[in-house]
Amino acid sequence: MRLLNTTTLELEEIIGDRPAYAILSHRWQDDEVSFQDAIKGKASDRAGHSKIDMCCREAVKQGLKYVWIDTCCIDKSSSAELTEAINSMYQWYQDAEVCFVYLFDVDESEVGTQNTEEPGLQFSCSSWWTRGWTLQELIAPPTLEFYNSTWSFLGSNHDLVDLTTTITGKHSKMLVGANPDSFSIAQRTSWASKRTTTRLEDVAYSLLGIFGNMPMLYGEGSELSLDCRKKS
């Protein structure tokens, strides 16, 4: 396994048991730091480096030596590694000590309501809530901490459970650590109904961990998504 050292900001291969680590949930933007950038010492040249730096700073504050970030910890040039990473993604988020949710499109410094005249509107309308891949990142970790565009803490999944229940339409227990298997197949499928992905196949792949694992078959398009739902 590969983790990012929070003090050196360098990737380390971990052999054996996983050490305690934080994990980042975020919307990908332009100029993210890739695995190749990280190993070639070019990470600081990318706009996404500041996000990684702030994530590591938060982890250090919480006494964590490592973080896992999907943009730079996976060698996406290796199809085998990418397949393994996607299949184990839910487990990565579930095993993390804490998941930092970075909302680049939220400037608010406090949340708590969806009333348009009070704080919380930007939080509720963040694009993070509509992406397919962030679904498992929302429900897998035991603890999520939400941060705005300047990395100011907004609250945890436990603090904001009433608001996040309203935003997502999911049962509150699902947002604070309940096992997805305790919900029906129809309920679990509905969680992804309003979420979008860049590639059609990812509609199905973003449900991995919620329904189980499957081989990666990019190129199958929407037929794969429909077939997987039928089999589920």
- Unreliable runs: 215-232
Strand portion: 5-15%
**Overall radius of gyration:** 17 Å
Strand order in space, largest sheet: 2-1-4-3-5-6-7
User: What's the number of structural domains?
Assistant: 1
Largest sheet: 7 strands, mixed
The shape is: globular
- Give the CA-CA distance, first to last residue: 30 Å
Structural description of this entry:
This protein is an alpha/beta fold. It has one domain (2-179). It has helices at residues 35-39, 49-61, 70-73, 79-95, 121-125, 134-139, 161-168, 185-190, 202-205, 222-231; strands at 2-5, 11-13, 21-26, 66-68, 98-102, 144-147, 153-156. A hairpin with a 5-residue loop joins strand 6 and strand 7 (153-156). 33% of the residues are buried. Mean pLDDT is 83; it is low at 215-232. The protein has 10 helices and 7 strands. Strands 2-1-4-3-5-6-7 form a 7-stranded mixed sheet, with helices on both faces. The two termini are 30 Å apart.
Outline of the structure:
34% of the residues lie in helices and 12% in strands. It is an alpha/beta fold and 232 residues long.
Write the layout of secondary structure elements.
Layout: E1 2-5, E2 11-13, E3 21-26, H1 35-39, H2 49-61, E4 66-68, H3 70-73, H4 79-95, E5 98-102, H5 121-125, H6 134-139, E6 144-147, E7 153-156, H7 161-168, H8 185-190, H9 202-205, H10 222-231
Parallel strand pairs: 3-4, 3-5, 5-6
Antiparallel strand pairs: 1-2, 1-4, 6-7
Any key phrases for this structure?
232 residues, seven-stranded mixed sheet, disordered C terminus, 7 strands, alpha/beta
